[in-house]
Fold this sequence. Notes:
The structure holds two protein chains of two kinds.
Chain A: H1 3-19, H2 22-56, E1 64-68, H3 85-89, E2 94-109, E3 112-121, H4 125-128, E4 133-136, H5 141-145, E5 150-153, H6 155-162, E6 173-176, E7 179-187, E8 193-194, E9 197-198, E10 202-206, H7 207-215, E11 220-227, H8 233-247, E12 259-262, H9 263-306, H10 308-316, H11 321-356, H12 365-391, H13 395-400
Parallel strand pairs in A: 3-10, 5-7
Antiparallel strand pairs in A: 1-11, 1-12, 2-3, 2-6, 2-11, 4-7, 5-10, 6-7, 8-9
Helix pairs in contact in A: 1-11, 2-9, 2-11, 2-12, 9-11, 9-12, 11-12
Chain B: E1 4-17, E2 20-33, E3 37-41, H1 48-55, E4 63-68, E5 71-72, H2 78-88, E6 89-92, H3 104-115, H4 120-129, H5 145-157, E7 163-167, H6 175-192, E8 195-199, H7 203-206, E9 211-216, E10 219-222
Amino acid sequence: xxxxxxxxxxxxxxxxxxxxxxxxxxxxxxxxxxxxxxxxxxxxxxxxxxxxxxxxxxxxxxxxxxxxxxxxxxxxxxxxxxxxxxxxxxxxxxxxxxxxxxxxxxxxxxxxxxxxxxxxxxxxxxxxxxxxxxxxxxxxxxxxxxxxxxxxxxxxxxxxxxxxxxxxxxxxxxxxxxxxxxxxxxxxxxxxxxxxxxxxxxxxxxxxxxxxxxxxxxxxxxxxxxxxxxxxxxxxxxxxxxxxxxxxxxxxxxxxxxxxxxxxxxxxxxxxxxxxxxxxxxxxxxxxxxxxxxxxxxxxxxxxxxxxxxxxxxxxxxxxxxxxxxxxxxxxxxxxxxxxxxxxxxxxxxxxxxxxxxxxxxxxxxxxxxxxxxxxxxxxxxxxxxxxxxxxxxxxxxxxxx
Amino acid sequence: xxxxxxxxxxxxxxxxxxxxxxxxxxxxxxxxxxxxxxxxxxxxxxxxxxxxxxxxxxxxxxxxxxxxxxxxxxxxxxxxxxxxxxxxxxxxxxxxxxxxxxxxxxxxxxxxxxxxxxxxxxxxxxxxxxxxxxxxxxxxxxxxxxxxxxxxxxxxxxxxxxxxxxxxxxxxxxxxxxxxxxxxxxxxxxxxxxxxxxxxxxxxxxxxxxxxxxxxxxxxxxx
Lengths: 402, 223
C-alpha cells in the first residue's frame, strides 16, 4: 500500500465523516463559500472598473485638459461659463477649447421615447474627441451662432429611437424635450466618452441651441481644452488657471471657483481610486475567510471531542498519530475546498446578476487562483490545531471517554 | 523464537497527584508462554486495568522491564508503541468498541490499513469463519451484541497478532451469547493456538483459562 492509497483512503474517510452530518458541514463551510465568492467578485468588479476607466477616457488624448466647476465655492455658484471659452482659446499653449453643456432629457421619435444625454458644444469637439460620422455632417459654427435646432446623434441614440444603430436618420425630426430638432448626422459606435458623458447615448447640438431650447441654466457646464503639445500641459494648466482667476476677478487668497485637471492626472487618479477600492473590498473578502476559518476550527474542535472514543479505538489498534492528524486535517481541507467550489459556482450567478443590473464586471482566471490559495491555506491553517489535538490524545483516556 | 511470549519483571506503576505518590502496581512479575490462556482477576481498584494497559502497550510502566517477543518495550516512544499494538496485540473490549460510522468489513480492515497493507481477502475469511459473511456491509448498530463482539474478535485477529488481550469480553452480553463468545475464544486458543490474556471478574468464565492470576492492591496474591 503506497502513500497515495493511504491518502485516498484517509480522504474517503474524512469525506464520509463530513457526509454523516451534511447540514452541519454545509453551515460550517458557509463562511468559506462567502469569502471565496467575495474575493472572486471583488476582483471582477475591480477589473470592470478598470476597463470602464480605460473606455471612458479612450477617446481623449493626453493633451486634453478638463475644466469644470465644483458644486459650490465658498457658498457661491461658480462663475465658469460660456464666456470663459474665448479667452482660454487665445492662450499661447492652447490649441483649442470647447464648451460642454450637458444634461439628460426625454427624447422621442414616432412613439419611441428614451431618456438620453444632450451635449451642447461647438464644432471643434469633432476634432477634439475624434468623433467619426457614418452618415450626414457635423453642425457648423454658423449654426451655433444662430442657435439652429440641429443634432448629431450617437449610435445608441439611433438604436433607441430608430431601432437600429445604422438607421437612416439624416433629415428626420426628433423631439428633444419639448422642441423639434433635425438630425443632420450619425456617429460611429465608439464605446467611449467625452469626460462624464458617453458618446454613444448622447446627441450633440450647437451650444447655443442646447442652452436656449433644452437645458438652460439646468445644464451642467464644463470645458475641454487641448494643449498644443504634451510638454506644454503643465504650462497650459497654469495659464488656464491664471486666465480664469482674472476673468472671474478672484482676489489673491480667494479659492479657485473652477477645477483644471489634465487627462494624465485624471486617469491615473481614477485608476488609483479604483485600485484602492479593490484592495479595500479584497480585505473584506479576506476577513470573511478568516471568520470562515474560525468557524471551521470551532466545528473541528466539536468533531474531535465528539469522536474522542473513535480516536481512542483507532489508536488502540495501532493508528500512529499522523494518520489521526491527517484524517482530521483532511476534513478541514475538504470543507474549505468544497466551500471554494461552491463559491466558484455562485460567482457565475453573481456575475450574471451584476451584468443584468449593468454593473461592469469582468471575471478573470487569476481571481479563482487567488481565491483557491487563500481558501485552502485558511482551511489547513485553522484545521491544524483541532487535528493536532486529536492526534495527541492519550489512547487510554480517549477510550474511556463516553 | 523462545517459548516465552511476554514477561513482566518487577513492574511498578505510580501516579503523582500533587505531592502524593500513589503506587498502583507494586512490583509485578508475570511470564506468559506462547499458546497460554491466562485469566486476570481482581476486585476493582486492584490495578487490573492499569496492568491491562501496560500489557496492551497503551501505557508505560514507571519502572520494571516488559519484554514482548524478545523486545524490551518498557521504554518505547508513543509512536513505537503504536506499531507494537498494531502488529503484536489484538484487543477485544467489553463494549466491542467498533467504529460506528464504518461498515463491518471496514472495521475489520482497519488494523491492516494502519499496518500499511489492507487485506480484503483475509478480512472476509475471518468474518466468514465468525458466521458473518452476509453482514460485511452492515453498520455496527445493525448488529446484535454477539455479532458485534464477533466483528471485534475478527478485527483483533486481522493482523495475526502474538496474543489477544480481552477485557471482560462477555461483560456486555447476555449469558447465552456470552457463552457462545467464550466458546469462540476458547476455540481460538485450543484449535488455533492463540495466546489469550483475559481480564474478568466472573469466576465461571475465569475457570475456562489454564491459569488465573489474582490481583489485589497492586500485587499478585494467588496464582
